[in-house]
């Protein structure tokens, strides 16, 4: 195996948007750095489901719903 090809893993502190903290190993930054998150899984709609509704642009959503309306009915 080649020597000195692996990244340097070290511990950093991660601070979530709500202020909670945890420590993890990463190649980001230097040992002991703090990573302040702007978006995290607790608040981002991609993970929480969000309340955003689908916009029907040009009738695409309604066309899709009409086409597959009876697809999963038993």
Automatic annotation (TrEMBL):
Residue ranges of the TM segments: none
Keyword Ribosomal protein attributed: yes
The keyword Ribosomal protein is annotated on this UniProt entry: yes
Keyword entries, A-Z: Ribonucleoprotein, Ribosomal protein, RNA-binding, rRNA-binding
Any one GO MF annotation of this record: structural constituent of ribosome
GO cellular component, one term: ribonucleoprotein complex
InterPro entries the UniProt entry points to: Ribosomal_bL28/bL31-like_sf (IPR034704), Ribosomal_bL31 (IPR002150), Ribosomal_bL31_A (IPR027491), Ribosomal_bL31_sf (IPR042105)
Any one of the GO BP annotations: translation
Record PANTHER family: 50S RIBOSOMAL PROTEIN L31, CHLOROPLASTIC, LARGE RIBOSOMAL SUBUNIT PROTEIN BL31A
Family: Belongs to the bacterial ribosomal protein bL31 family. Type A subfamily.
Biological role stated in the UniProt entry: Binds the 23S rRNA.
Self-association and partners: Part of the 50S ribosomal subunit.
Protein name: Large ribosomal subunit protein bL31
Organism: Ancylobacter defluvii
């Amino acid at each position: 195996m080649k020597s000195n090809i692996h990244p340097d893993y070290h511990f950093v502190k991660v601070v979530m948007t709500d202020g909670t903290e945890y420590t993890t190993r990463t190649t980001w930054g230097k040992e002991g750095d703090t990573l302040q998150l702007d978006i995290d899984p607790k608040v981002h709609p991609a993970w929480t489901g969000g309340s955003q509704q689908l916009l029907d642009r040009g009738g695409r959503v309604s066309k899709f719903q009409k086409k597959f309306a009876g697809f999963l009915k038993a």
